[in-house]
């Protein structure tokens, strides 16, 4: 209903409108309150309003989350900017999270989707706060082409700029985790495969016993070994080395 109402107001195809919502699970969204204010919202649209948008999507977040990067291409500079919300019910394979990223570069949709999917695996799909996944989440990347400068998925500077924005937003979500007082990064090397590495790291990051040790600043490495053992991924006990710092 909302997507059609907005499409009609903006004289767009409904397929050009993307909707997302967050809040208390099971509580219906008050569509009529939004639709009746739609003309006013449209009249207040501002090209510089992304900061207000970042604040508007907050729920249990304690601050609005945003990140940006400017990339120099052979043709000229292109910009990448993103906003996100998320604080609780955060775990790999997305989370209770909304993220919107925009670039003024010109790039083919297939290439942009490929970049987003691959970078998502090492950013938003590689974070956790409480090990709980969500009933709903959204990540949208849009290329407006407004700069007039074309890039491709092989442009290393553009890929790194996009990665930087996505990683920054993902880290902000973790730092603002409900009740979080520490930011911890798990680095795991020497696993039999990338999948095993992710499985081990996820078991460590989600372990309540590891979390309590870190919260108490107790270097109880036995709890990390325990998490590795229960992960289900292959591990050689006598070859394990652990660094905390």
Describe the structure.
This protein has nine helices and four strands. It has 245 residues and is an alpha+beta fold. The protein folds into three domains: 45 residues, no CATH class; 128 residues, L-amino peptidase D-ALA esterase/amidase (4-Layer Sandwich), CATH 3.60.70.12; 46 residues, no CATH class. The chain has a four-stranded mixed beta sheet with strand order 1-2-3-4, sandwiched between helices. α5 links the parallel β3 and β4. The radius of gyration is 21 Å and the shape is globular.
Report the principal-axis shape: globular
Order of helices and strands: HHHHEEEHEHHHH
Arrangement of strands in the largest sheet: 1-2-3-4
- The CATH architecture category of the largest domain equals 4-Layer Sandwich
CATH topology name of the largest domain: L-amino peptidase D-ALA esterase/amidase
How would you name the CATH homologous superfamily of the largest domain?
L-amino peptidase D-ALA esterase/amidase
CATH class identity of the largest domain: Alpha Beta
